[in-house]
């Protein structure tokens, strides 16, 4: 009989369809057709009459089809004394009261579109309750839309509140962590530089470890805070015209010692024109370079090499690329690496530690500049990551086709 149980739908009911249905008094299968004809004649708005036996629906009589058969004199004489079961539809659309409005609409549209004009039966645990119509479905849909809008508004407010709480927590956390971290880093630097006098070589090594760990933790805190600001739409670019080569040199100097300790060399290949300038947030640009270089150092074995190249493409786009000879990544690993807090598992150890925010943060920062991040990598073949800045941000020289690097595929 086309029975549909709401349990098969898997959706939570909010606006029950039977609230808006017609409480039409049903008839028994043995009721004479003449009696049903009289009911239709007395109520011009009645579109159908349910046929019920022992509280269970067994059929539905559609007004248009029924009156067409009995309107003619011969038809009336033929059917008026016969039971209504003769002219009823024995398989009308029957739905449980708990069916979701969206599911009912989909069911009618895909399987029983005629139910909008002819009506359908609504049951409660299999027992007849009411007659559903196109109007009742529309009313239930309107109520569901209002409820959904309210739910979305409440969800937005909850998400906004959670985001504000998160931003406040990260801001307070960063402040509380930065203060002691700066003190730790400062004292470690004093010890390493032997400001208060010479230290035994063993303790000097400890001071170096403290300084390295403190700077690493401070970088993690800064990345967390920056990512939270970007997600909240509160990260502001403070743009000026900076020398691209100077910023690259600065980043290479900062991480040069770290690279040396890991047995990795860094080589910067710059444009011949040292006047190449970029309109950008200098702190963000340096941070992008530092994150890319840090990743390259982390994933490159001793004896490996890292190269930094800058060039202006034929269309005026500035490309700053960091290429390493490290372990590389598969396509699947690249997707994970670009996901916030996503970390690629390598050999099931914690050798390559981090927050998983390096590349996602770089991607977000370059996109704030109207540019894009490009990555080309393969397992065992190293990685190339490019920062691509739009032409309108580049000043100082025109495009040089011979110096432009091929785009990452």
From TrEMBL:
Q: Which PANTHER family match?
A: SENSOR HISTIDINE KINASE RCSC (PTHR43711:SF26), TWO-COMPONENT HISTIDINE KINASE (PTHR43711)
Instruction: State if Transferase is listed as a keyword.
Output: yes
Quote the catalytic activity from the record.
Answer: ATP + protein L-histidine = ADP + protein N-phospho-L-histidine
PROSITE patterns, per database record: HIS_KIN (PS50109)
Protein name per the record: histidine kinase
Alphabetized Pfam families for the sequence: HATPase_c (PF02518), HisKA (PF00512)
Q: Where in the cell is it found?
A: Membrane
User: Top-level EC class, please?
Assistant: transferase
Against Gene3D superfamilies, the record matches this protein to: 1.10.287.130, Histidine kinase-like ATPase, C-terminal domain
Q: What one GO molecular function would you report for this record?
A: phosphorelay sensor kinase activity
| Positions of the Histidine kinase domain | 172-393
Chief location of this protein within or outside the cell = membrane
Q: Which SUPFAM superfamilies match?
A: ATPase domain of HSP90 chaperone/DNA topoisomerase II/histidine kinase (SSF55874), Homodimeric domain of signal transducing histidine kinase (SSF47384)
- What is one term from the GO cellular component aspect held by the record? membrane
**Claim: ATP-binding is one of the keywords in the record:** yes
What species was this sequence derived from?
Answer: Hypericibacter terrae
InterPro entries for this protein = HATPase_C_sf, HATPase_dom, His_kinase_dom, HisK_dim/P_dom, HisK_dim/P_sf, Sensor_HK_Regulatory, Sig_transdc_His_kin-like_C
Signal peptide extent: none
Question: Superkingdom, according to UniProt?
Answer: Bacteria
User: Which of UniProt's keywords are assigned here?
Assistant: ATP-binding, Kinase, Membrane, Nucleotide-binding, Phosphoprotein, Transferase, Two-component regulatory system
**EC numbers, comma separated:** 2.7.13.3
């Amino acid at each position: 009989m086309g029975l549909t149980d709401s349990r098969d739908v898997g959706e939570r009911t909010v606006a029950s369809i039977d609230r808006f249905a017609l409480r039409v008094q049903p008839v028994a299968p043995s009721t004479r057709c003449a009696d049903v004809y009289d009911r239709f004649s007395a109520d011009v708005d009645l579109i159908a009459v349910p046929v019920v036996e022992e509280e269970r629906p067994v059929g539905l009589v559609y007004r248009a089809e029924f009156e067409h058969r009995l309107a003619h004199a011969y038809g009336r004489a033929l059917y008026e004394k016969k039971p209504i079961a003769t002219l009823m539809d024995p398989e009308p659309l029957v739905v449980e009261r708990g069916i979701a409005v969206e599911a009912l609409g989909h069911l009618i549209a895909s399987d029983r579109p005629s139910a909008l004009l002819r009506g359908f039966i609504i049951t409660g645990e299999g027992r007849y309750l009411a007659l559903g119509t196109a109007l009742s479905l529309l009313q239930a849909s309107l109520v569901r839309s209002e409820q959904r809008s309210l739910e979305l508004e409440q969800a937005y407010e909850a998400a906004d509140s959670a985001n504000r709480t998160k931003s406040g927590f990260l801001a307070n956390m960063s402040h509380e962590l930065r203060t002691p971290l700066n003190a730790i880093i400062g004292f470690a630097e004093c010890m390493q530089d032997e400001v208060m006098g010479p230290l035994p070589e063993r303790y000097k090594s400890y001071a170096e470890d403290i300084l390295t760990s403190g700077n690493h933790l401070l970088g993690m805190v800064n990345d967390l805070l920056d990512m939270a600001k970007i997600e909240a739409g509160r990260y502001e670019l403070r743009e000026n015209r900076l020398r691209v080569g100077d910023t690259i040199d600065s980043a290479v100097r900062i991480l040069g010692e770290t690279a040396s300790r890991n047995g990795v060399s860094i080589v910067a290949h710059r444009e011949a024109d040292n006047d190449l300038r970029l309109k950008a947030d200098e702190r963000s640009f340096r941070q992008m370079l530092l994150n890319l270089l840090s990743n390259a150092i982390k994933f490159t074995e001793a004896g490996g090499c890292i190269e930094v190249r800058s060039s202006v493409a034929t269309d005026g786009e500035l490309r700053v690329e960091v290429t390493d000879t490290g372990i590389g990544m598969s396509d699947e690993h690249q997707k994970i690496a670009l996901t916030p807090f996503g970390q690629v598992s390598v050999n099931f150890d914690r050798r390559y530690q981090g927050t998983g925010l390096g590349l996602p943060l770089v991607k977000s920062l370059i996109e704030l500049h109207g540019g894009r991040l490009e990555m080309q990598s393969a397992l065992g073949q190293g990685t190339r990551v490019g920062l691509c800045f739009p032409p309108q941000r580049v000043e100082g020289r025109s495009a040089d086709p011979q110096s432009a690097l091929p785009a990452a595929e």
